[in-house]
Every structure is written in structure tokens, then in C-alpha cells.
Amino acid sequence: MTKNQTLRRALEDGKLFTAMAAHNPLSAKLAEEAGFGGIWGSGFELSASYAVPDANILSMGLHLEMMRAIASVVSIPLIADIDTGFGNAVNVNYIVRQYEEAGASAIVMEDKTFPKDTSLREAGRQDLVRIEEFQGKVASAVDARRDADLVVVARTEALIAGRGQAEAIERGLAYEEAGADAILIHSKQKTPDEVLDFIRAWPGRIPLVLVPTAYPQLTEPDIEALRKVGIVIYGNHAIRAAVGAMKDVFATIRRDRGIRQVDSYLPSVKEIIALQGDEHMRSIESRFLR
């Protein structure tokens, strides 16, 4: 099966699909090695890696090229986070084809205004577009895909914006009507109660997508038992792991005024070279260098 078919089949079969965030090809390779089903091409992580807010400050082209680079080094599906679609329904129609050509197996688009503010920021700007406007953007994304197995996920930020369960359900159903293959429901509450209420009330035919960043107590067995969730995304754990590890190593080196302590628990240079694809390069050398 193609990557697109793998993701599509997982949604149709009802088996929970797991995706780990990545902000570069190396973190994507590590996620694949760890056994995740797919990669979340996170806009938050990419923005953080450039030390800028997740507020559409980085260009679409930069994100697109990073998705292309990630897709080229993994054999599992890539779910691309395209934020608000970088414009209106016309923009969406153009960029979805570009993400598809770059190797994305799914795109996730949210119903906030452009430029967006990150969902989990306290007192952030969480302004939503009209339901009808976002329906047009979803329908445009569906129309743009050349491969019918490309998954279009509509993300509603109604709970993030404090609009309540009724509007969240209304928006989810409207986006399903527009052709979305799945609905991502997000919450910044510290417990999963708000999201669980939405899931129990969800009357739609298409599966849901969860990003349990704010409520880590919700495990995969818990999510599977709900029987309405198709994908769980670990949305920012790669960049948080990287930041935590670097801070610890850097502080230890400055404290010790040397690398003697940290060298014993860091991955070896040999391991890094292997991740760079050195074996493949050596194979090319042996075959073609004259």
C-alpha cells in the first residue's frame, strides 16, 4: 500500500493510528524507529525550532519544504499541519496540491482566522471564521486533491475559543458535510472531561482526531475504548524532549567545564552518522565511484 492508503485504511478499519510530532527529518526518523504509525508535521514545533511564536510568522514555503524533507526520509504517513490554510478557499485549493506533491498523506486545517495564535497560549487570540467560510475551505481542499486517499482533516477550535459544546458539534457536522474525512477536536483544559463530553455527544459518521497535550492522563487504551477516535497526535513532544535534553547537557558542560560527564550518556557520534544514512552513501560509493 502507499502511505496515503495506509492512513486511509487505518481510519476505515477503526484501528487507532498514532502520530508523533516532528520538526525536521531527524526527529521524524527517530519517531518512525520508535514505532509510531505516522508523523505529525507540526507548525508549532517548526516555529519553536526557529525560536518564533506559532502565529503564522514562518512562511508557508518554509513549512512546505520541511514537510517535503520529512516525507523523503520516512516510510510512514505524514500528516501536515497547515494551520488555517494560509488564506481563503482559493489559497487552500493551490496549497493542498503542493502538500500532496511534497509527500503529505493528510492535511489538517483549523477554523481560526489568519494569522492564527497557538491554541494553548494563555489569553491567546482565538477568533474563528464563519462556519460557511470554513466549509468552503474544506470543500476546496477536498476538490484539490489528486489522490482520493489523501485525508482531509478539519480542525475545530470551538472549545479552545470558549464557544461551548453545541457550537463545536455544529461546526464538526458542518465540516463533515463539506467533505472532511475526520474532525480534530481540541481543548486546553487540564483534564480530558471537555473532550470526552464532545466525543460522547458526537453524532457524525466520520472519526475524530485527538491531541492530548493538555490532558496527558488520557492513554491510548482509554482513547480506543471510546470507539470514535481514529488518530491520536502527540503534538509537541519532540521539540520539548529536544529542549529539555539540550538544556540539561549544556548546563552540565558549563558546570563541569568539560564534557566528561555528559559524554557517557549521549548518543555516540557513530549513532548519529548511522541516522544520517551513512550505510546508503557507502553503498553508492562502492557502486559508482571510479
Automatic annotation (TrEMBL):
According to the UniProt entry, its GO molecular function terms are: hydrolase activity
Q: Which UniProt keywords apply?
A: Hydrolase
Q: Does the keyword Zinc apply?
A: no
Pfam families attached to this UniProt entry: PEP_mutase
> What family does this chain come from, according to its entry?
Belongs to the isocitrate lyase/PEP mutase superfamily. PEP mutase family.
Q: Which PANTHER family match?
A: PHOSPHOENOLPYRUVATE CARBOXYLASE, PHOSPHOENOLPYRUVATE PHOSPHOMUTASE
Instruction: Name the chain's protein.
Output: Phosphonopyruvate hydrolase
State the organism of origin: Cupriavidus malaysiensis
